[in-house]
Amino acid sequence: MDEDKGQRTGEAIGAGDLITGPGPVLMGILNVTPDSFSDGGDFLDPERAAARAVSMLDEGAHVIDIGGESTRPGSDPVSPEEEIDRVVPVMRAILAERRDAVISVDTYRATTAEAAIEAGAAIVNDVTALRGDERMVSVVAETGCPVILMHMQDEPKTMQQQPHYEDVVREVRDFLEERADHAVSAGVLPENIILDPGIGFGKTVDHNLTLLRSLDAIVQLGFPVLVGASRKRFIGSITGVGEARERVFGTVATTVMAYERGATLFRVHDVHANREALTMAGAILAAE
Ligand code: HH2
Question: Which residue has its alpha carbon closest to ligand 1 atom 10?
Fold first, then answer.
């Protein structure tokens, strides 16, 4: 494990170096939305949001992932203008405090991605894997930003109504492979691609568990793999913890298991707990 990651005293670490590096990368979640399932409404004020981002960086987050639209099951889309108005002031406030912060923008809209990159975002996190806006692939290719391609069956409004797969691991892996091919053929550098099985996006509890258990099938595609299981409902279904904010221990179990199976990026709300667990897991994996 690369112990130097996240030490912000030396030279700034670029997004590309982070994702291709050997060690685990923690992405701290910052939802600038009134309705996100876990932190909705907490960070609408840019100063408050920036303070939260700084504390996640201090706890060991390497990236802050900022989203201006909730994708929780049943959620409605917001307008692109509203999304930009939520995300960009928060990014500016964070960068005013921490000039070298690596920020990722959680959006599927090309105009939002452009505005965020212009304001300093270094990674695009697209939960539609470049299907939500046909212009997104060229924005990513032209700016040279790393991009997260996530699997989702259906769309947030209806995705949890009837998730169905013949073979969830094969279908998610094939989808991600096809999306990576599409990105590369449109000019995105392979080293800028991160794959994500989309835990909770059009999946039953069993689908999520099977994907986590079989994550190595996705890792074998040869791209860095990100897991976003933090505080999600399937963890509550297994552990019996109803309150999303209290699903920390269950989340940490997903992080450690996914790391052991080859995932290297983790999108989490609770940075400190996940960092400590990854440090311990890394030491065990590195033992003779
Ligand atoms: N999950 C959420 C949002 N964005 N991006 C990636 N790459 N992977 C994920 O698993 C993922 C994601 C949903 O969680 P959250 O942001 O906490 O809630 P909400 O969508 O309600 O804002």
Answer: 228
pLDDT of res. 37: 80
Burial class (CB in 10 A: 0-12, 13-18, 19+), 31: buried
Q: Quick one: tokens of 111?
A: 């105009």
Residue 107: is its pLDDT beyond 80? yes
CA 154 / ligand 1 centre spacing (Å): 15
Which residue has 């221990």 as its token pair? 249
How far apart (Å, rounded) are the C-alpha atoms in residues 54 and 158? 35
* Mean pLDDT (the chain, rounded): 93
Does 157 participate in catalysis according to the annotation? no
Residue whose token pair is 């130097």 = 4
Query: What residues have CB less than 8 Å from 48, skipping those under 6 apart?
Result: 42
Is the pTM higher than 0.85? The answer reads: yes
CB-ligand 1 contact for 160 (6 Å cutoff) = no
| pLDDT score for 1 | 41
Q: What digits encode the pLDDT tens for the residues 145-172?
A: 999 999 999 888 888 889 999 999 999 9
226 lines ligand 1 (CB under 6 A): yes
Tell me which of 179, 231, 232, 247 is the catalytic residue: 232
pLDDT of 6 strictly over 90: no
Q: Hey, which of 267, 268, 269, 270 would you mutate to test ligand 1's pocket, going by the most ligand atoms within 8 Å of its Cβ?
A: 267
Measured distance CA(26)–CA(274) in Å, rounded:
8
Active site residue 267: yes
